[in-house]
Amino acid sequence: MASGTFADAGADLELVGIQKRFPGFTAIEHLDLSIPAGSFFALLGPSGCGKTTTLRLVAGLEEPTAGSILIGGTDVTQQKAFQRPVNTVFQSYALFPHMTVLENVAFGLRRRKIADPVGKAHEALRLVELDHLAARKPQQLSGGQQQRVALARAIVNKPALLLLDEPLGALDLKLRRQMQLELKTIQEEVGLTFLHVTHDQEEAMTMADTIAVMNKGRIEQMGAPEVLYELPKTAFVANFLGQSNLFTGPVIGSTSTSITVDVAGHRVIVPADRAHRHAGEVTIGVRPEKMWLHRKAPAEAADRNIMGPGRVIDVSFSGVSTQYLVAVPYIGTLIVFAQNMAFGPVADVGDEVWLDWHVEHGFGLEDEPVPGAGPRFAADTDTRSIAAQRRESLVTELEEA
């Protein structure tokens, strides 16, 4: 690939007190966000959480009801989309079908009368390893290749900030995983600031340096992928970023290094530095892959939590692992992931089993899950509408040319 000198360094992005209201509902309640220059930042959340609205605000496709947007320290809140140092890569790519790959990448440079548009387009294509297909039309390329062309077209303009609007959603699983690694590599080489908006947890954890998990118009938790996964602060983060077994009960003992929680008669120990609350009614949890399944009651040990007996109610084979659903009286249904080390399941439906896990793998939340809580805001605009607007804009530019 090309050297890291290809593009200028990215700029930092800062959102200050952002609020966005539409007639009848609020998409973003109050949002403060700071993204360092040159980072790969993922805004992760379910449909309706406000992430797409946030992207539209940064891109200049929407105006905030309140608050400011700063890129590289410059307030761009009142600037139109074309005035901002921002480019967007969409899920639908929006390539001109009648143009060659090279012409698609050079189009924006020619419109802006940038010197040597063809040379710069070739350089961008070399970066995404597609220069050998420069003479082809988009319909002659695979989905992954079209995605790379769209990325080259965005990067060639040297934006301070590159927005990725669920760009891999149209690809098959294997190609999507390959593109995740390639996007991360490209971002590191060109040094731009990437803001990736997605609902795919695995995609965000694979590529991003920092993830902000968004829910109902606000950020629930932000940090490095491994921190969010290992130490979620809220029930929403614990269950959205992977799966979790959560338990609620009173703290019945504590030391300088741990707390002990009574979970329906089971004494469960959690390290103090992995728990956000140390007294009163608390919610604690453990990830399914951290748990072990036993056909007999395991021996008591100071460094392990034991739960059971329970009854296996479902066994689901998924290749590298098997998922077990275990009903434990007075606690509920727990999930266990067991790596497939031998042929056949560890336990069958109807079997009596016990569960245990290392104390150091538990975590404690700041909040408690609220059963039956509904969505606070209505769903935001579908990401496809942004691509449609962008396509119309490009077609207009082409007709004018």
UniProtKB/TrEMBL annotation:
EC numbers: 7.6.2.11
GO CC annotation terms, alphabetical: ATP-binding cassette (ABC) transporter complex
UniProt keyword terms in alphabetical order: ATP-binding, Cell membrane, Membrane, Nucleotide-binding, Translocase, Transport
Alphabetical list of SUPFAM superfamilies matching this protein: MOP-like (SSF50331), P-loop containing nucleoside triphosphate hydrolases (SSF52540)
EC primary class: translocase
Catalytic reaction(s) noted: ATP + H2O + polyamine-[polyamine-binding protein]Side 1 = ADP + phosphate + polyamineSide 2 + [polyamine-binding protein]Side 1
A Pfam family the protein falls into: ABC_tran
Domain ABC transporter: 13-241
Superkingdom of the organism of origin: Bacteria
GO MF annotations, alphabetized: ABC-type polyamine transporter activity; ATP binding; ATP hydrolysis activity
InterPro entries tied to this protein: AAA+_ATPase, ABC_SmlMolc_Importer, ABC_transporter-like_ATP-bd, ABC_transporter-like_CS, Mo/tungstate-bd_C_term_dom, P-loop_NTPase, PotA-like, Transp-assoc_OB_typ2
Gene3D superfamilies for the chain: 2.40.50.100, P-loop containing nucleotide triphosphate hydrolases (3.40.50.300)
Family matches, as NCBIfam families: potA
Assembly behavior: The complex is composed of two ATP-binding proteins (PotA), two transmembrane proteins (PotB and PotC) and a solute-binding protein (PotD).
Family statement: Belongs to the ABC transporter superfamily. Spermidine/putrescine importer (TC 3.A.1.11.1) family.
Function: Part of the ABC transporter complex PotABCD involved in spermidine/putrescine import. Responsible for energy coupling to the transport system.
Protein name: Spermidine/putrescine import ATP-binding protein PotA
High-level lineage: Bacteria, Bacillati, Actinomycetota, Actinomycetes, Micrococcales
